[in-house]
Amino acid sequence: MSVLERFFREHLRPHLGGLAGGAVLLQLGGLCQALMVGTLQFVFDENFGMAGGGQASRALGGFAPLNHLRDWLLAQLPAASALREATYFVPALLLVIFLVKGLFTYFGSMVVVRSGIQATQSLRERLFARLLDMEPAFFQRHPVGELLQRCVGDVGQVQGIASNQLADAVRESTLALAMFIFVMQRDWKLTLTVFIAAPLVIFPIQRLSQRIRHINHRNMEASGRLLQRMKEVFSNIRVVVGFARERYEVERFHHHQHDLYRLGMKAARAGALSHPVMEMVGGLLMAAIIILVSGRIHSGALKGSDFVVYLLGLYAFYDPIRRLTKLNNEVQQARASLDRVYQLIDRTPELPVPAAPRPVPALPGLLRFEQVSFAYDPRHSVLRGIDLELRRGETLALVGGSGGGKTTLVNLVPRFFDPTEGRITLDGTDLREFDPRELRRRIGIVTQETLLFMDSVHDNIAYGRDADRASVVAAARRAHAHDFITALPKGYDTPLAETGSSLSGGQRQRIAIARALLQDPPILILDEATSALDTESERAVQQALESLMEDRTTLVIAHRLSTIQRATRICVMKHGRIVEQGRHADLLALGGEYARLHDLQFGTEGAERKG
User: Fold this and answer.
1) Model's pTM, two decimal places?
2) pLDDT band per the 50, 70, 90 thresholds, residue 80
3) 446: helix, strand or coil
4) Would the pLDDT of 161 be above 90?
5) HEC states along 475-533?
6) 98-117, pLDDT tens digit by residue?
7) Distance between CA 146 and CA 151 in Å, rounded?
8) So what's the pLDDT on residue 479?
């Protein structure tokens, strides 16, 4: 099944009623087009005096339904009406047909466009939801620019063919069908003879379609790279400006743009070839018609009005076919985009939800690591044989140099990753047996890198919960954030800039802590949660965190050893292993790695103070 068929079955079929109604209206518009061409017979016969008689008058057949319509309309008019005269009747009839055709075409197109937009909205929502099901490692392998291109650019291409272009395709197809019936009714033998040239069109158009689809795949990839580069530059604008690298970034942008230009020109050349192919076929058809009917014209067996109307009908058939060929180029571009969209939708997450998940304990009592190992790359292990137990109410602090595996270890608890060996259990149940979303609702996380949303302060603190203002204010007070929040222009309703950049680092950190306080989780993960605070704020927030830690399982990553001296247990990690564990005083007395880190840190601080 092609991606177009799949898109129709999964997203357009629910809107089949609207599509069918719009198609009927567009078909009526196509019928009006045939009536317009047929009405020109009256112009040539009665206004321009091109009518013949006898056998010649039916050399290419007549359009009997239109003759009956004219007779019926004339019968309804008063005997003295000026509209009974051909000079006025035919133009009035043409105006009415034009008006009715326009109404049918407009309303039919709107119905089809609405259905197409709704279908692509459901596709975009499905893609977005699927992306949120992916494991965190997926977002490390796929740049944000690429994902934005898939969600916005690729789905936008699909929306074009599912709305406006679908309406155009239905309209042109119904018009072509109506005009085909018209020319067949005029002279079916001549029409079928002319259509022997159809294979001259089909083969080159198919080849061009394949090339356009292939080029568009590469074009979308290049667009994703360009978007990613722009995002990086704008997100790191202080670095760019600080190092005076504006010209360098402009040159890199130019190179990315040049790739898009090359691919765009290739696609344009492939698409432009379809027009001269159709023009050549049109010329062949015209030459064939003249050769076939020239003898009948010279003998007088064919009257002028019949031949002119037949040519107009044939052109009215050929013109929508030509436009459909152009639409085919756009369909091939959208087909390439659909390929990329369905690649993501069909991808299976590496952290799947179990078919029958176990319920997560509301107040878990024991978190246990059993011979846990982990590697991002099979050749380089990050964690090696970790054995740990944490009971409710305990605070475990992880310390050690950079690259020791501390952050990786705590990231295994909310199942951002799964161990490559061993297992992690909660009250004896493997974390992989829980629904990841339910598990994460029991875990509060405050990271060193605090990112906020472009929402109000209230919405950022209440993120993930339907909390009232009183609860938000209470959490902010405990995080010592209330005073600076009320000093903002709109208080708790103040909108924040992207990633919360309108606040200082310490302010952002306190809002993140307030968010964790409001969640009131049984398990806490604090990754340098007070690193961005000044000394006074750190002391106040540390007191709030200590009260929050009571009767909860808490994992703390700390580089500043002064913040974790009251931890129930301290684990020292080095090269992915736990090399020491115990209380602060015991580890100092041991004189090992912890004591070395302590002397190094406080010795440096002492030297700085003396300086």
Assistant:
1) 0.73
2) low
3) strand
4) no
5) HHHHCCCHHHHHCCCCHHHCECCHHHCCCCHHHHHHHHHHHHHHHCCCEEEEECCCCCC
6) 898 889 988 988 888 888 88
7) 9
8) 82
Token pair belonging to 242: 């600080």
Residue 256: the pLDDT is 79
pLDDT at 426: 94
> What distance in Å separates the CA atoms of residue 515 and residue 471, rounded to the nearest whole number?
11
Mapping DSSP onto H, E and C, the string for 527-587 reads ECCCCCCCHHHHHHHHHHHHHHHCCCEEEEECCCHHHCCCCCEEEEEECCEEEEEECHHHH
What are 558's two structure tokens? 């700390």
- Other Cβ atoms closer than 10 A to 584: 18
Of 161-170, 206-215, 413-422, 494-503, the range with the lowest mean pLDDT is: 206-215
Question: In this structure, what is the dihedral angle of CA atoms 139, 142, 145, 147, given to the nearest 10 degrees?
Answer: -80
Q: Which residues pair with 426 in a beta bridge?
A: 367, 429
Q: In the chain, what is the greatest distance between 2 CA atoms, to the nearest angstrom?
A: 122
Query: For residue 70, what pLDDT band results from cuts at 50, 70 and 90?
Result: low
454 burial level (CB within 10 Å; 0-12, 13-18, 19+): middle
Least confident range of 18-32, 426-440, 567-581: 18-32
Of the candidates 578, 445, 456, 564, the one whose C-alpha atom is nearest the C-alpha of residue 513 is 445
Measure the CA dihedral 67/68/73/78, to 10°.
Answer: 90
Contact call for residues 337 and 151 (beta carbons, < 8 A): no
Written as one string, the DSSP assignment of 137-197 is HHHHHS-HHHHHIIIIIIHHHHHHHHTHHHHHHHHHHHHHHHHHHHHHHH-HHHHHHHGGG
Q: Beta partners for 358?
A: 434
Give Cα 424 distance to the centre of its chain: 35
Task: Name the strand (E) or helix (H) holding 372.
Answer: strand 366-374
Structure tokens at 523: 């398990």
* Angle in degrees, 0-180, between the axes of helices 164-186 and 155-162, rounded to the nearest 10: 30
**What secondary structure does DSSP assign to 17-41, as a single string?**
HHHHHHHHHHHHHHHHHHHHHHHHH
Query: Chain centroid to CA 225: how far?
Result: 16
Pairing outcome for strands 421-426 and 366-374: antiparallel
CB 41 within 8 A of CB 309: yes
